[in-house]
Structures are given as structure tokens and as C-alpha cells.
Design brief:
The chain is mostly helical. Helices cover 74% and strands 0% of the residues.
Length: 476
């Protein structure tokens, strides 16, 4: 397939269809926002609660302990991706979305009430660990359900735009956490934050999740899933969402892992680790470093839809390749310069430069992954390999960075990030562009001129069971 092939615009949607897609975008995005708020607020407030669970005189060691628990949460993401991805493929995207947000609410409450080391010894750290494992399972399923839902619920010629809200909401969740942190930094003393203030954002996260649960109950299932579950392909019903079915698309699963590798390491380096790096290596005040992260992430979120729309016009691969080249050659000089910044504006400029580069990956990765798999295994195919790559590389990025720092070889981490991006670059160059694939039988019939939407689009065929997408076959 060629990324230069232009997909003609389909007929304008009806008012009812536009309303349904708006609700889908809002429900999928807001839920994702709350999920990632709860996930990231742990990293944002770690500098205040680290010594509450891990006593000692070395701040770096305390942060390494909390970063270790942060990384352990990633180990449950493949489990969540498998269990909840299977549920999304067998019982619907909507049911999986409501389940993930319920699990995240419970996990946030556990962290909010966890006893400190002074109150219960290391039992508090155990509660923290259990909560992070539950969060990891929830977020593993959330990515599967929301990435698939946002992509399937979008118009065919706007899937890049629709899926870009995966990282818009993801980043806004982090911004919400940072905004609460900035507010609390200006209203509470450091002693109050370290004593009890850090619990407040977790209580709020649990309450936010209850509201989103109600909203997601009102969502409609995607056409692609309803088509698959209608009975037309009942012979494949028992295989939907299974590892056996995913094995047929093992090459696509490998592609997801490889294309995720560089993106997830770069994203966590310039988001969750950035504040700690500015404080610990550049010597910035905590409040200034937090404000730098907040402003850079706000601008980063605004960029996502524009990059998504660009991918709908020029294809996915050009953006992915631009990201990988920029990250491979730019990480060392950007991180080195960030380590010696002395002002807010210089730190902001460098941070934003890095996040502009990362946008080439974040804005479209959900669409690319969803476009590689057929409906019956799409959520599981998106979730499991992505979660494995995140567990191995994204979740450990902060810990690896702190380990290099503690051993006196901090610059080696910069080369590590560049190396991961280089692996993904090779993948992007060799993989097909997925922009024009059909995600449903209706889209495939339109491509073949046999359905009511014939002539509305141009895809690349269907899989062996006449369900979409052709991307799964084209990527073989």
C-alpha cells in the first residue's frame, strides 16, 4: 500500500451519527483522562510521599524505591491487556471501558488510605504495591479498550484525528495531576504536603472515576464490534479475543512491540521523569520544575490533533519516521542541555522541543496499532504486545535513569533512549502504512463496490474471514 493514496471523503454523516461520534469521543477521552490522571499522579507526588513509605537519608534511594513500585505496576499491564483486551473483543469495548475505570477507582482509594512507615512499618509499602498492581492491570485494559474504541468510532478519513485524543486525554490527565500539585504547592507548606497533602489527589481520582463510570454506561458500542458480534461470523465466536487467534497475527504483534519501544521510552523520559531530572540534575526548585512540565505538556496536548489530522492526509509512516530520527539524534544534546539549564524559559524551550519530536509517535500510535488487526482480536492485539513493551521499557525508563545517575554515569541513559528510538526507526521504515485499511466489513464492501458506501473510500482488501482490516494481511 502507498501512503500517497488519497482516500476520497465519504458522504457527510447524519446529525444522529455526528452526535453519536461526539459522545464516543467525549466518553472515551474523559475516561482515559481519569485513568491516566490516577496513573501519573503517583509519579508527580512521589517526591513528597517517598520518605513516608521508605525511610532513609538518601533522597535518590527513596525515589528509586518509589520508582521501583511505579515500574512494578507496569508488570501487570500485560495481564490487564490480556484479560481486559479479551473481554473487549468478546463482550464489547463499552463493557471493558466501564470495568477499567472501576478498578482504577478502587486502586486510587487504596493509595489514599495507605498507612505510612511510621504507622505500620512496611505494610504501607505493601498496600502501595498492591494498589499499583491493580492500577497496572486497569491501565493495561484501558489502553486496549480506549485506543480501539476511539479508532473504530471515528470516521474512516479521520481515524488519525480521533485516535490522537488517546494522548490528548492521557496528557490532560497528567496535566490535571500537575495542576493540582501546583495548586497545593502554593497553598500548603512542604511539611503539610509530605505529611498528608499528597493523599488528596488520590481521593479526587477515585471520585472522578465514579463520574466517568456513569458517563461510560451511556456509550454506544462501535459498529465494527456490533458487526462482528451479529452472528455473521459465528463460526469464529469462540476464538474472539483469544491468544490462539492473536497467534495468527503474531507478526503484527511483533510490529506493535517494536514500534512502541522507542515511543514509550521517549514519552516517559520527557514526562514522568522530566520533573525529577530538572530537580535532581539541573538543580531547579521543585515548584519551577513542575511549572515547566505543566506548560510543556499543555502545549504538547494541543499538538496531538493537528498531527493526527496530518497523518490522515499524508499517512502514518512519515510522522513515525520523523519522530524516530529526531529522537535518535536529538536525545543526547537535548538531555545534556536540560541538565545545565538555569532558567524557566530555557528549560521550557528544550522540553517542548523534545515533546514536539515525540508527537510524531504519540498522536497516531493508537490508530496504527488498531489498523493492524481484525475486529475479533483488535483490542487484544493492540493491548498485549503494547503492554509487554511498556512493562519492559516504558515502566523501567525512570528507574534506569535513576540507576545511571546513582552510578555516576547519567549520560549513558541518553544513549539508551536513542538506541531504543533507533530500533523503532528500522521498524517504521520497513512496515506498511496503515492509513487506508478497512476496519469493518462495511468499509471493505465500499472498497469493493458491493456495499451501500461503495466509492466512499479506498482500502486494501479484507482478511480471510471477510472482516476487516486488510492491514493485517498487508502487513504480513
Amino acid at each position: 500500500m502507498s501512503s500517497s493514496t488519497v482516500t476520497p471523503a465519504p458522504p457527510p454523516p447524519s446529525p444522529e451519527e455526528r452526535k453519536r461520534r461526539r459522545l464516543a469521543l467525549i466518553g472515551g477521552s474523559l475516561g482515559n483522562l481519569v485513568e491516566w490522571y490516577d496513573w501519573f499522579v503517583y509519579a508527580s507526588f512521589a517526591i513528597y510521599f517517598a520518605d513516608s513509605f521508605f525511610p532513609g537519608d538518601n533522597p535518590t534511594t527513596q525515589l528509586m524505591n518509589t520508582a521501583g513500585i511505579f515500574a512494578v505496576g507496569f508488570l501487570m499491564r500485560p495481564v490487564g491487556g490480556w484479560i481486559l483486551g479479551r473481554a473487549a473483543d468478546r463482550h464489547g469495548r463499552k463493557s471493558a471501558l466501564t470495568l477499567t475505570v472501576s478498578m482504577m477507582s478502587v486502586a486510587a482509594l487504596l493509595i489514599a488510605v495507605a498507612p505510612t512507615y511510621g504507622q505500620a512499618g512496611y505494610f504501607g509499602a505493601l498496600v502501595l504495591l498492591l494498589a499499583r498492581l491493580l492500577q497496572g492491570m486497569s491501565i493495561g485494559g484501558e489502553y486496549a479498550a480506549s485506543a480501539t474504541y476511539l479508532t473504530e468510532a471515528s470516521a474512516r478519513n479521520r481515524r488519525g484525528l480521533g485516535s490522537s485524543f488517546q494522548y490528548v486525554s492521557m496528557t490532560c490527565g497528567q496535566l490535571l495531576g500537575l495542576g493540582i500539585l501546583i495548586t497545593m504547592q502554593h497553598t500548603l507548606s512542604t511539611a503539610q504536603l509530605e505529611s498528608w497533602g499528597w493523599r488528596i489527589p488520590f481521593v479526587l481520582g477515585a471520585l472522578f472515576a465514579v463520574v466517568v463510570f456513569w458517563l461510560r454506561r451511556r456509550l454506544q458500542e462501535t459498529d465494527a464490534f456490533k458487526e462482528q458480534a451479529s452472528g455473521a461470523d459465528s463460526r469464529d465466536d469462540s476464538a474472539r479475543g483469544t491468544l490462539k487467534a492473536l497467534w495468527l497475527y503474531r507478526r503484527q504483534a511483533g510490529l506493535v512491540m517494536a514500534l512502541t519501544l522507542g515511543g514509550t521510552v521517549a514519552y516517559y523520559t520527557y514526562t514522568t521523569y522530566l520533573t525529577k531530572y530538572l530537580v535532581g540534575s539541573a538543580g531547579m526548585e521543585k515548584t519551577t520544575a513542575t511549572l515547566v512540565s505543566f506548560t510543556a505538556l499543555a502545549l504538547f496536548a494541543v499538538l496531538q490533533p493537528f498531527a493526527g489530522m496530518l497523518s490522515d492526509r499524508v499517512g502514518r509512516r512519515p510522522l513515525l519516521i520523523t519522530f524516530a530520527v529526531g529522537c535518535t539524534v536529538g536525545t543526547y544534546p537535548i538531555m545534556t542541555a536540560l541538565g545545565s539549564v538555569s532558567s524557566y524559559w530555557s528549560a521550557l524551550g528544550l522540553s517542548l522541543l523534545a515533546l514536539v519530536i515525540v508527537t510524531g509517535y504519540t498522536s497516531i500510535n493508537a490508530a496504527v496499532k488498531a489498523e493492524l488487526f481484525p475486529t475479533r482480536v483488535r483490542a487484544l492485539g493492540v493491548a498485549l504486545p503494547y503492554a509487554v513493551a511498556n512493562a519492559l521499557f516504558g515502566g523501567t525508563a525512570e528507574y534506569v535513569a535513576l540507576w545511571f545517575k546513582s552510578s555516576g554515569r547519567e549520560s549513558m541513559f541518553f544513549w539508551y533512549v536513542s538506541g531504543c528510538a533507533l530500533v523503532s526507526l528500522v521498524t517504521y521504515v520497513l512496515m506498511p502504512d496503515t492509513r487506508n485499511v478497512a476496519l469493518s466489513r462495511a468499509e471493505a464492501e465500499a472498497d469493493n463496490g458491493t456495499g451501500p458506501g461503495a466509492g466512499a473510500g479506498r482500502g486494501d482488501g479484507t482478511d480471510r474471514d471477510r472482516e476487516a482490516p486488510a492491514g493485517a494481511e498487508a502487513a504480513r
